[in-house]
Amino acid sequence: MIPTALLDLVDLDGVPERGLGFLLLLTVLLLAVATLVVLIVELVVRLVAPSQPWAASLLRETRLALRLLLAGVAVQIAVSLAAPETRFSVALDRLLTIAVIGLFAWVLIEVVDHAFDGAMARYPTGADATRGTRRAHTQLTFLQRLATVTIIVVAVSAALLTFPQMQALGGSLLASAGLASIIAGLAAQSTLSNVFAGVQLAFSDAIRVDDIVIVEGEWGRIEEITLTYVVVRIWDDRRLVVPSTHFTTTPFENWTRTGSELLGSVELDLDWRVSPAAMRARLDAVLDGTPLWDRRVSVLQVSDATGGHVRVRILVSAADAGSLFDLRNYVREQLVEWVRHESPGAMPRTRVQVVDGAASGGEGEPASVAGDGSASRQLFSGTPEAQQRATQMMAPSADPEAPSRAGL
After folding, report:
1. Which residue in 6, 32, 132, 213 is deepest, having the highest Cβ count within 10 Å?
2. In angstroms, rounded to a whole number, what is the distance separating the alpha carbons of residues 312 and 280?
3. Mean pLDDT, residues 329-338 taken together
4. pLDDT score recorded for residue 107
């Protein structure tokens, strides 16, 4: 409702009695004044627009909210001054007051968004963005959301305080010594823990928008940092939504923490007949012919030579993670083509040694050495005792009712 100090400035002597006719007249008059104010504001903006382009863009973004706010203020003043004293008018007055508070918050949010958008336009993000640019963009985005949430919370609180019951409750809470314990208890909850973690991430420079990170085994780019969670855009265009507390309590990889330059390796298992010198010359030609290589590191070494193969390890560098991924694949493809066409002897092979059967005693079972007594050591043949044992074990029983043991 209209504050008492404002009503004291208005001389109510001679003002007609509250009634529907006076209410309509005053409403039309105040709406005309609000329209005049809007026209004056737009005229001033047009005059300063050539020298201050931001004024015109600000007016475009806030025109609707500003018009509704002025209209709401005009109607609310008319209802407060001219509406009859009834329960309906009191409820209408309170409803209009809440609407004015909401419209005012809308205007403030539009102004804040315009200011932060203008500031962030000076720090464009992308593949060429510097570390300072990404840090400033991250912090400005976080502050913009924090300011928006603050305005909304204050507006909702102000709307609730228009009710007498809420005023009494608010006064008792503010006067209560247990308010600090209530806030501390709420802060311990997971939601506010994520909010505090988001504040820490925004200003500790641990991650920034467009940083390349490895989170939960996924490679991606930081797309958005909100008050409570972080959105990571995975390389295959999936989005991984991670709570802010994850980045403050769990180790993760940030590939662009201090710079975007990276090193990567390519390994090939080849035959011993490969020529590292010739392969190194081919690598130099491949790297010189591609813009993916940033000309910092180019190394080819034989890192292992066991198990019948030679392991060639190639180390290359690129300006960022995406270029490095493509460069490693490109180098691998070119060297595979070189091995196939220019050095086929270097292709990996599996060698098998064939042993002549005659040298080992012929095919089949190895020949027995005469006189070694192996025949006498057989169980069912070779000696009369063994033959008798075989007859007893394998022959049918003389008893016709006994089961046959021929199958044993």
Report:
1. 213
2. 10
3. 93
4. 86
Taking CB atoms within 8 Å and a gap of at least 24, the contacts of 376-381 are none
For residue 264, list its beta bridge partners: 316
Beta strands in 321-404 (DSSP E): none
> Residue 22: in which H helix or E strand, if any?
helix 20-48
Rounded CA-CA distance 176/160 in Å is 19
Residue 157, strand partner residues: none
For residue 250, the SS3 value is coil
Q: Which of 307, 327, 309 is nearest to 317 (CA)?
A: 327
Taking only Cα atoms into account, the Rg of the chain, rounded to an integer number of angstroms, comes to: 43
Which amino acid is residue 56, in one-letter code? A
* Global pTM value: 0.48
Compute the distance between CA of residue 397 and CA of residue 403 in angstroms, rounded to an integer: 8
Residue type for position 349:
R
- Phi and psi at residue 210, to the nearest 5°: 80, 5
Query: Within a 13 Å sphere around the CA of 239, how many CA atoms are in the beta-carbon half?
Result: 8
CA–CA dist 219, 240 (Å, integer) = 10
Q: Are 284 and 298 in contact (CB under 8 A)?
A: yes
Residues 354-402 have pLDDT tens digits of 776 555 554 444 444 444 554 455 666 667 777 776 676 665 544 444 4
| 11-16: average pLDDT | 45
CA atoms within 13 A on the CB side of 69: 16
Whether the predicted pLDDT of 185 surpasses 90: no
Classify residue 189 by its DSSP letter.
S
Extended strands (E) in 191-254? 212-215, 218-225, 229-234, 239-243, 253-254
Q: Which residues have CB under 8 Å from 277's CB, separation 6+?
A: none
Predicted pLDDT of residue 400: 47
pLDDT in the model for residue 328: 92
pLDDT at 375: 47
Rounded to an integer, what is the distance from CA 174 to the centroid of its chain? 39
